[in-house]
Design brief:
This protein is of the alpha/beta class and about 400 residues long. The chain has 14 helices and 22 strands. The radius of gyration is 24 Å and the shape is elongated. The structure holds ligand PMT.
Length: about 400
């Protein structure tokens, strides 16, 4: 479960051609365990129907401030109730009209009333014609909302409905979900803390076209970075080459080799409160990197490997216990013994061991089975879970260790 589980999300949908994408967003939020109340503006109903959202949420869909009440008197206070009980208000797509309405505090439709009543964080995902977006009036209205603490996600540059390209496309839905999660997590247990997460495998070049690598997909590390963000932290994600989207609201530092990852991680750890090393760092690299593509000769080819720096051990040596350090142990047997050895050898506070020979656990999978070995001798075995859920539990445990050390650094 991520932070969305059990949360009350109000999804305001406005009249834009991008309104059809709000149905997918709604479905994603519902699948993540959120209770979603959908409000369609009058213009949105020209593009999408209430039935679509009612079917996805199995809840009433709000829209016409007066017509809904005429049809169902129990909705007479919906314009107040929905906003008062919201944990977060997401307006997606947000049109120029609705942004103006919210900026100026109007209360002339159900969405505007709800936003005015609600004290929950507001997320806007604008989508409109480039001229409307760039107009000073829209920019001033957006600035007003941001100054009040709203979160803006997008728009992006791309092909618009009119057939031209420009700023105005709705942000990718995973970014809207990321922004919603981050808004929910604001002020969470890691608020004011700086967290560094490493993810993915490293590529150690043999020649310009070949490398020594491993099967890490980056899923575990990305999930940890997002869980830390959702706990309110400022997160730096140092990641090897992966094919995952950049998570919203997280500073991403892409690297290729173990030595690059070491430099980036050591730099990011200055002033950090927590390091979580989920990356599968190559322990060795080709001692010599050919600057030309190696030719096939038919004979055996021997490649001498040189040791890479141990990043976690180096962080421990340089920073001591000024930050909490969480490592992973990818094992194919003797999990407990190896995890305990690595805990002490690398100066970690916590080692999360995964038996990567178990089906569904470890490299490339969507799930993982992790056992947490603490410096205090504690052993906590988690069941097989989706990686985002594993990440939430690890970050909760690491967050408690950070809290026990006291004072936020930022
Ligand atoms: O990316 P996914 O496909 O989601 O897969 C997730 C994972 C299996 C990669 C992840 O759960 C995991 O186990 N990551 C650690 C993999 C690993 O390299 O384990 P290790 O036992 O070799 O290393 C122990 C610890 O030392 C790790 O925290 C590692 O990041 C760190 N290390 C290792 C080598 C090195 N040179 N420097 C390090 O800091």
């Amino acid at each position: 479960m991520t932070i969305l589980a059990g949360k009350r999300v109000v999804l305001g949908v406005c009249g834009s051609i991008a309104a059809f994408k709000a149905a997918q967003l709604c479905s994603t939020l519902v699948q993540a365990g959120a209770e979603v109340d959908v409000i369609l503006t009058r213009a949105a109903r020209e593009f999408v129907t209430p039935l679509t959202f009612q079917s996805l949420t199995r809840r009433a869909v709000y829209g016409d401030l007066y017509g809904d009440v005429a049809a169902n008197p129990s909705l007479s206070s919906a314009h107040v109730d929905v906003g008062m009980h919201a944990d977060v208000l997401v307006v997606c797509p947000a049109t120029a009209t609705t942004i103006a309405r919210l900026a100026h505090g109007l209360a002339d439709d159900m969405l505007a009333c709800t936003a005015l009543v609600s004290r929950a964080p507001l997320v806007i995902a604008p989508a409109m014609n480039v001229g409307m977006w760039e107009h000073l009036a829209t920019q001033a209205n957006v600035a007003t909302l941001l100054a009040r603490g709203a979160t803006q996600v997008g728009p992006t540059f791309g092909r618009l409905a009119e057939g031209i390209s420009g700023m105005g496309r709705l942000a990718p839905l995973e970014d809207v979900v990321g922004a919603t999660r981050a808004a929910l997590g604001r002020g969470g247990p890691l608020a004011g803390r700086r967290v560094v997460v490493t993810a993915g495998g490293t590529h150690e070049p043999i020649d310009p076209v070949r490398f020594v690598g491993n099967r890490s997909s980056g899923k575990m590390g990305h999930a940890l970075a997002e869980a830390a963000r959702d706990a309110g932290a400022m997160v730096v994600l140092v990641t090897g080459p992966v094919s995952l989207a950049r998570p919203w609201g997280i500073e991403v530092v892409p690297v290729e080799t173990a030595r690059q990852m070491a430099d980036a991680t050591l730099g990011a750890c200055e002033g950090a409160d927590l390091l979580v090393m989920a990356a599968a760092v190559a322990d060795y690299r080709p001692a010599v990197e050919s600057d030309r593509k190696l030719k096939r000769s038919g004979d055996a080819l021997a490649i001498t490997l040189a040791p890479n720096p141990d990043i976690l051990a180096t962080v421990s040596a340089r920073f001591g216990d000024r930050l909490v350090k969480v490592g992973f142990a990818a094992e194919t047997g003797e999990v407990a013994a190896e995890a305990t050895r690595k805990l002490h050898a690398k100066g970690a506070h916590l080692i999360c061991a995964n038996d990567v020979s178990e089906v569904g656990s470890g490299f490339g999978t969507d799930t993982n089975r992790v056992t947490m070995f603490g410096r205090d001798g504690s052993v906590e075995a988690l069941p097989m879970l989706p990686k985002p859920e594993v990440a939430t539990l690890i970050i909760a445990r690491a967050g408690a260790l950070v809290a026990a050390r006291g004072g936020a650094t930022a």
